[in-house]
Design brief:
This is DUF1108 family protein. This protein has 2 helices and 4 strands, in the order E-E-E-E-H-H. By secondary structure, the chain is of the alpha+beta class. The termini are close together.
């Protein structure tokens, strides 16, 4: 499991990223905002950012949701 610190303008939180290589998916959790999501390797790039944004938008404002979605997409591509 990887733990990353997201430092935004209004939101600072830890992001926990678990990669399940056997099932080819990621589990991402952000306990500070009560958010978690699981997605397959097939979802990547702009489609991943959009998918994450749509889920985060329910919890955060537009800018914070977009920022965090882009960071999570970047971090999962590095793992």
């Amino acid at each position: 499991m990887k733990i990353r610190q997201s430092n935004g303008e209004n939101l600072t939180c830890k992001v926990y990223i678990h990669e399940n290589k056997k099932e080819e998916n990621f589990l991402v959790s952000v306990p500070d905002i009560f958010f978690s999501i699981q997605f397959d390797y097939e979802l990547y790039g702009e489609s991943l950012v959009e998918h994450l944004y749509l889920h985060l938008f329910n919890l955060l404002d537009e800018q914070e949701a977009n920022e965090l979605a882009q960071r999570i997409a970047q971090w999962t591509s590095e793992v």
